[in-house]
Every structure is written in structure tokens, then in C-alpha cells.
Amino acid sequence: MSTHSFKILNASAGAGKTFALVKEYLLLILSSDKPTIFQHILALTFTNKAVAEMKGRILEMLWAIAFKPDSEAAMCKALLNELPYDKKQLQHKSAFLLKKIFKDYGRFDVITIDKLTYSIVRTFSKDLRLPNHFEVVLDKDELLLKMLQNLIDEIGTNAQLTQILLGFSQFKISQEQSWDIEKELFDTAQSLLNENDRFAVEELQKLDDTTWIILKSHFQVNLSKIENVIVSAAKQILQKLKEKNLTPDDFFKKILYTHFERLKNKHFEGRFNNQLELALKGDKPLYKKATSSVIINKIEELRPFLLEIYLLTRISVGRWLLCRSILKQWTPMSLLREMGKRLNTLQFEQQKMLLGQFNNRISKIVQELPAPFIYERLGARYHHYFIDEFQDTSVLQWENLIPLIGNALEGETSTGQKGTLFLVGDPKQAIYRWRGGNNQQFLNLLNKQIPFQIEPLIETLETNYRSYDELIHFNNDFFKSVLDILTSSRLKSLIKTSVYQKINFKKGGLVTLSFISQNLKKEEENQVYSLRTIQRIEESIDKGFEHQDIAILVRTGEQAKTIGKILLQNIIPFQSEEILYLSEAANVSFLIQLLRLVSNPNEKQLKKELLDYVWQYGPKIKEDYHSFVAPLLDLAPRPFFELLNCVYKISFQFKIFKNLSLNESILYSLSNFPFLEKDDSFMLFFLEYVFEFTKTHGENRTKFLDHWTQVEHTLKVNEPEDKNAIRIMTIHKAKGLEFPVVILPFLDKELYSVKAFPIWYNLKERSFNKLPWVLVSFSKKIKDFGASGQLFYERQLQEQESDAINVLYVALTRAKQCLHIITKNVNSERKTYALLFKNYVLSSRNEVYDGSFFSWGSISKQNGSKVDKMTKIPFEINTNFNWKQKLIATQYYRGNVVNTDIARGILLHQLMEKVDQAPPQKIIDSYYEGKLSKKEREHYLALMNQIITHPQLKNYFNTTNSVYCEMEILTPQKPILRPDRVVIESDHAAIIDYKSGIPKRGDKIQMEAYEDSLKSMGISTVRKFLVYTQKGLEVEELR
Questions:
Q1: pTM of the predicted model, to two decimals?
Q2: What is the per-residue pLDDT for 379?
Q3: Which of 180, 227, 752, 897 is 20 to 30 A from residue 907's alpha carbon, by CA?
């Protein structure tokens, strides 16, 4: 048996990491003469599922060795090679230890790191100054959602908070992000608990409101000052040139004049992405070859001065861009401060503490108190540590473990025994940086940068025992081919030294790679990816694989839903945590909307969603969809359901329904809507959930709906894991798992983020501000902040590249026998997964076209029996019910002055809606008398006349064709659409939409939705016009 007390195992995918870890655990307990040694071992991993697997493997292996050693011959042989036992002695001791563990199972500590944190928090609650009867909460979502609800409830009563939330919603819309502001708030709130954000968030929490206001003013003043400095410097340069009688044409391509003219006019962005610096330094031409010697002498005389001012203004522009970026993110930062306050208040009021906030707090205890004292308080003394998936450990988690492990490694027990540490990880599978995982810690250990006095023994497992050799060869060759595309030297080194794996005894296997066209709309693309996935499934089933042998791995939950839909349509059994959310079951949503209708009887969207369900799942009727739905939307609930009863021969009475208790009203609905699915997994789970809710909270319908709004996106239906069904999951969820067949659709992700996103930027080296951390928008513009911005940007790109390649590595190494990759045939050089796969094929001198299909290896017919297909589970994705209208309820007028783009837009829409009924002058005189100033009346009158007489638009105002202003378009399973103006002649139509803000990509997407709806109604040709009014009148026709 090895005598090393500190071992590090670098184990690539499929290399037998779990086998090695279990073997090391068994060697430790079997070699000891103390039967209670397991009480002094702490094995740590990251999820409860991993804990269950590790515990299960240890106990199963002990049982097998004790009673059926031939079933685990490999493990028995490995143990006997290192232990001084024969086979019978090994069996006897294994049986003895198994009994001991079961007898004292509570001391068999294979736990999550969070569980260890929980134990320390409980033990040191007084030291942490926690309430006497506090509860540690592992699930953060419930408290965060409650905090957000409290936040939202203050809208309209707390002026400062209302302004922040209104600004936040406008900010998100201006960034062309989700209109689901509640989701955006929830995502923002995660920063309060994310370890990556902890330093920055803590600094924000330290500031009082007065200081926060002063800081904002400080940035605004600095922005103005820096702007003046830049403009002044530019003017100084231009004046010098004038004094020397130098003209723009005296300089090569007018580059110098153009540069400083734009700075003078405050056009700062992108100004230094040119060749001027090289020209001023003499590395590029500053003037033309034919320039006279007199002019050359003048320019050369000025060159040092020009270069000096150029470099100074570049620094100033960098500071200006940084200031502006910070101010743009001030509202989200203000919101984080408000959220932090309310979360702390809520925890204090409910005496609940989120575990995610304790890693930082307990670090002070662990760092300051002696380890023996901590062990004594914990009631357990650990001498031996096992840590699995170490590459995902966060900085704080590791720092909190170092004193405890160091005490065990560097000290001795009362009997003179040394402690041990066994670390297992794979830096290529580090895919949790976004939640605090720090892969660099593992790389440091592999490079022998050790926080202990003990040198480690480092072993690398080089053989892949999971996959067949064709899959191993493919991955070895593929990752070798990506090296030329990567920019991170650290990542290149990691791939060169550790990605190659040796093959095992399993010969054969199949890898396929198919390319779809990149010139497809999103909906068409999803359809093609789904169809290719179905083809791979059918081929696998034909080869004798069971459904449960197949896993479909995707990058996002939305992609999982897309695949889930196509499998449902083809009645193919599947399981997925990404899809089986209770709120997305159509029958459950139908009941929720019924309950909501009691409090919102005039809400059209609720009625439409009820009618959509009836239209899809109820008996078919002769009327077309629009004729069926439109007359019902304006009816009150009683006549609404009376007409529905008549059409569908049912007997639902809304008056009875609304007067029943919560449970009774749901059961009444189930009995009176015969086409409502009653016995699927979703409905049974929902009924049980409602019942449990009423036991603790009563039968109050409103209270339940408030609660549902908070938790609807977190409730999942659990199904048995041994079900014969295809697994659909994200690549992150698949880490650590293996499947005979893996299908990878949608494998076209960019290696770097193409969208701007908020990120914390360190300001400690910035002399103009005392705030050390600020939010900025991550994009190429950060490079213009200066040298630190350039370094920050490049470091972030390298991190993103590593994340992307690590995720790809995890995806490609899950398969045992068959690996099916589906990607795009891309033509651009933008770095994506698709480009990596295309380059790999091209490197073997093959051509790639749309629809190209390549394969390596083959697979023979498998032995297995087919199973019956499952019953279809109906579900759909429905529109969320959220709180936006509460924000819109804020005042649009202050006195008589319209003060927001939103208000101006609403006013213009109301005016233009009546333009076919009266001349613009009459509309303004009668409709807004007393509410607009004379100047504003003149503005809107001129604007209306400009619109109706515009050359591109006038034929759609002075017309005898059918005109629909602010009329709803109703389409099955789609939200209600309301274009501003639609003009229809025969099968031709024109859509005109007014926009008071700046042009956004979302405007075009919205117009495409209008167009699709009109075409579904038989309109063949649709012209689309966007009318922007923020800066005069701009009309854009979309093609």
C-alpha cells in the first residue's frame, strides 16, 4: 500500500476516477486496525446526487467483496495487490466493516461541501451573531422570490425605489433584453449570493444612501470634466495646425485632421482604432510622399507635440468611456443595493439565513481559530480527507478547508498516525466558473504550488475505460485540430499535455458529424436540428438500443424544450428536468388562469389562454379560430362561460366556481371540463402541491396565486429514473454521467460571448474614485478604457474560451458506443463550435456543404427488446403573468409636460389612432385640450402632418382600403398582437408601427411577428414600415 499521505489524481473523462476514489477509500479503512476509522474520514463532493453515488459505490463494493467477490474481480485484485490479506481475510474484514458502518451510519461522512458549511454555521452560530432559533436555508430561490415580491409591493409607495425599478425596466428594454422584468430581477438578485460577485456586492452594501448619491454625482462631474479636457486638447491641436497653415490634405488620408475634428465634436468612441499612433511614431506614413519640404518641416516640428497630445487624449477618452459605462450601469447597481438591504431584513424577520452567504463569514472563524478547537466544537475529528471534482471548488471553499486539512496532514493523531488527503479532478471538465468554481487552484496544485508542508504524489490516469476506440480516436484527433484556433496559451498547454487518452479493449464504436445550413431562420433551424435528432434516434433504435440508452445533450433549457416538443409529437418517451416544469403543463396552466380570472375578470389575455386550451384539446368545432375567439374576449366571465358551455356542451358555472374554496374550485373545474387531462404526472403533482399548500396556508385563493407567481418556474415533476426513456439534459447536468448513445444537436455555440453583459470591473488603481468595484458592460469597448481595460478584456476572453472548450470536452466524452454531432456549415471565421468541426473535416481534405454527413467507425446490432411507447404527455409553453403593468402605472405627466419616451409614444399612438376620423388639427384641439402646452401642440401637429404626407406612407392614410388601427390579431397558441396601423387591399397589406425610442433589433423582430400572423390569415404580400420619431421623423421600410 502506498505510504504517501497527500495524493492528487488528475483523471480525464472515462479514466476510472470513481473506481480510483473508491479503491483509495477502501484501502484506507481495510488497512487500519481501527474498525471506527470511517468516523474520522470526510469525503466531500458537490451535489447530493454525487454523495448518494459515492456512498452507494463504497457500500456496494464492500458488500460485493464480502459476499460476491467474483462480481467485482477488478477491485478485489487491486486491493489484494496492496493489502497483506488473502481473499478470505479480505472478505471477512469487508463484512465486518460493512456492519460497523451500518451500525453507526450517521458517522459515515460522505457529504457535500455545503453540508460541511452548514455544520460549521450551526456549531458557531453565537460566534456568527445569529438569532437563537435561526434556520439555515439551502434553497435560495424561495427567499429571493419573497424578497422580490416585497420589493415589487413597494412600487408606487416608495418613490426612490419606484424610480429605480422603472429605470431598470427601461434599461433592460433599451439593451434589447427580456421583457419579462420579473425574471430579469430574479437573475440580478443572484449576484447577492454568487461567490464571483461577493467582493463587489459587499462593497456596495457598505455604502449609505448619502454616499451613494454623492458617488454618482462624482462620476457625472468627472464625465463632464474629462469631456472638456478632451475637447480643449483637440481644439488646441487644430489651432496649432491652423497657425502653421497646415490643411487636412497635407496629411496622409486626412487622418490626423479627421481624428481631432471628431474629438472636438465629442465623437469619442472608436477614435483610437486607427493607424494614427503608428504614423505619429514614424512607423506609418503621416504625410504624402509628394508633400513639399516646407510642409514636411512644419509637420516634423509639430510631431512630438502631436504625439504627446494624442497619447494624453487617448488616456482621457479611456477614462471618459469608463465613467460613462459605469453611469449606464448605475441603476442595476442601485437595485442590487436595495435588494441586499431587503434580503437582510427578510432573513432577520423570518430568522432564516441563506447558506450561500456563510462561506465568507465562516472563513474568519476557520482562519483565526485553532483547528483542534473547531474539531472539538464540531464533535468530530477528521484525519483523512477525500475531495472529488476539485476543479469546481471555489476559492472560499478551498481556503476554508486548508486550515482543517493542514492540521490533519501536518500533525499526528494520539497514536502517532498521519492524516491524509486524496484530491481528484480534471481541469478540462471545469465548467462551473459562473458559480464560483476556480480551476486555477487545481492547476496550481498540479504545478506543485502547495499550501501545505507535505509534497503531493501526483498521478495521471491516461486510459479511457468508458468509450469504444473509434470515439477515443475521434476526440484525440479533434482536440489536437483545435489548437491553431485557440488564443489562450494556458488552454493550449492543457490540451497538449492532458487531452490525449489511451484506448482500452473495447473495439469499434460510431461517430457521426452532420452539417445543416447556416442560412435558416431560427424557427427553421430548430426544426432541422430536431429532425436530424429524430433521425439519429430512429437509427439507434433500429440498431437495437433502448430509449434509456440514449441521451440528448443541449446547451440551454430552451433547446431542451425544442427537442422535447418534437419527441412528444412523435410519441417518443423521454425524461428531462429542463422540460418537466409544472407551470408549463397546459392543463395546469388552464386551472391557474381560471383562478386568476376571479380577480381579473376583464383580462383578455387570461381568456385567450383559456380559449387556446379549449381550442387545442376540446372537441373540434366548425368555426375558424378567429371567429371563435374574438367575440368571447370582451365578454364578462358569466356570459363568456355560458357561450363556452353552449358550444362545447359542458356545464361550468363561474359563479359557483368563484365561491368555492381553493381545493373545491379545482376539483369542480376538473369535473366540468371533460377534456381537461386529469391523470397525467403534471396534474397529479399539482393537486398534491395545492393540497399541501392549503394544509399550512389555508384555502385563500389570492394567497395561493401570489405564492404560485413566486414558485411556478421552480416546481418540477419528478419521474422514476429507471423509466425506459430518452434523457434530455443540459451538458452541465450530464457532467459525470455516461450513456451508450449521445446525440449533440445545436452544437454551434460561439467561443466568446457575442452579446454585451454586465461584469464587475476593479477600480482600485483608478485615482478618480473611491469605489473599488463597479458594473460595466462587457464588450470590445472595454479595451478603450486603457491598459488595464485591455488586459481585463483579454483575460476575460481567455476565460470564456476555456469555458467553451471545457463544455465541449464534457459533451464529447459522455458517449460509450455512439456519438452523434449535429452542427452548422458556417462560412465566417467567427470562432464557434461549428467552425472547429468544419476545420476538423477540412483538415482531412474533405469538403463541407449544407447537409454534409461524415461518419467514423460502425456499430453492430445490439441485443435488446423493444418496449411500448409511453402515452403522450401534453404540455405547452405559456405567456408569463407578471407585474409590468404596475410600473406602467407610474405617472406619465409632471404638470403639463410629457417627460418620458414611453409617454410620448403612448400619446402619439392615441393621436394617430384617430387620424382617419378627423384632420390632425381638430384631433389635437379636441382630444388634448388643456393637457399640452402650445409648443407641444405645435410639435405633435407638425409630426402628424409629416407622417400622413410622407412619400412612403401617404398612400396608406388617404385610402379607401380596409384600415385597422390598434386592432388585435388573434392566433392560436400565440400572444395577442396589436400593430399600430394595418392597411389591407385584397391579399396585400401594409403595417405601420410608430416608435418613440431609438431603433432596436427587437423592433424588426416584432414586425416579423406581425407579418407572420397576417400571412397565416392568407395575406400573400406584406410591406412593413417603422416610423421613428425621437430625432425628427425617420421612416424605415423593412425588406
A1: 0.78
A2: 60
A3: 180
